[in-house]
Each structure stands twice: as C-alpha cells, then as structure tokens.
C-alpha cells in the first residue's frame, strides 16, 4: 500500500491510493483529491475519493485530520466518517511514513499519543511493505 499526494495549489492536493488486492492479486488504484476547507485550520482536510461500487465510481468524502507530522518522515492522520444509510461511524488512524519502515522511537511516540487520546493501540495493524514500487 502506498499513496501519492501531489500539490495542485495552496489548498488542493491530488490523491492517488495504491494497493494490492487480496482478491485479484492485482494493483488497485483509487484517485481523488483533498482540500483545506478552512485556512485557519490547515491540518483539517476533507478527502474525496472516487470509489468503485458495482461498476460505477461514487465520490466518498471523509475527514482527514493530520494530528502530527515532522514534514519529512512521518504523519499521523485521523479519519472519521458516518456511512449512510446505516449511519455507522468508521474511525481510521494512519501512521504514514515516506520509507518502508519508521524509526522505532518515532513509532512508539506516535502510539503513545494515540493511547493518550483513548485509542486501543493493540488494534493497530502493520501493513507489510515488501513490494518494490
């Protein structure tokens, strides 16, 4: 799994999420964009992804809040959305790295930050990054 974020201008970012499908073994790509709706809070973005559903592409919008970053090696991102029609709440936390591995001390600090906000960090899963891109 990897993502490519390309700045378009001061408040819009092109997003391309890439991953290996466990069903087909092929690469899946989901495109979209992110934007800052309020310049006073630039770490709170909205991301719009074009998700394939039954042969059609549906735009899904979700929150994309950057909780921590050093702008060079890592970002900690929180996302929360209510999914209609069930109104089910889905929360995601992403620890993103520019490399396939992250310094263990940085990872520990980020996990401690999540735990302090009430997250059960034992439920975090690590995505193996063993493909060459």
From TrEMBL:
Residues 2-129 form the Lipocalin/cytosolic fatty-acid binding domain. Gene3D superfamilies: 2.40.128.20. One of its GO terms (biological process) is response to reactive oxygen species. InterPro entries: Calycin, Lipocln_cytosolic_FA-bd_dom. Coiled coil: none annotated. It comes from the Eukaryota. SUPFAM superfamilies: Lipocalins (SSF50814). The keyword Signal does not apply. One of its GO terms (cellular component) is cytoplasm. The keyword Repeat does not apply. Keywords: Lipid-binding. GO terms for molecular function: lipid binding. This is Lipocalin/cytosolic fatty-acid binding domain-containing protein.
């Amino acid at each position: 799994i990897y993502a490519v974020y390309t700045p378009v201008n001061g408040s819009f970012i092109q997003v391309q999420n890439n991953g290996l499908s466990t069903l087909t073994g092929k690469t899946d790509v989901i495109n979209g964009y992110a934007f800052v709706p309020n310049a006073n809070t630039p770490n709170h973005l909205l991301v719009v992804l074009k998700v394939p559903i039954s042969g059609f592409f549906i735009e899904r919008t979700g929150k994309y809040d950057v909780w921590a970053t050093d702008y060079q090696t890592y970002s900690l991102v929180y996302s929360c959305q209510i999914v209609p029609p069930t109104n089910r709440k889905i929360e995601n936390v992403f620890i993103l790295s520019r490399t396939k591995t992250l310094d263990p001390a940085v990872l520990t600090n980020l996990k401690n930050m999540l735990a302090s906000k009430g997250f059960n960090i034992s439920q975090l899963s690590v995505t193996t990054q063993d493909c060459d891109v």
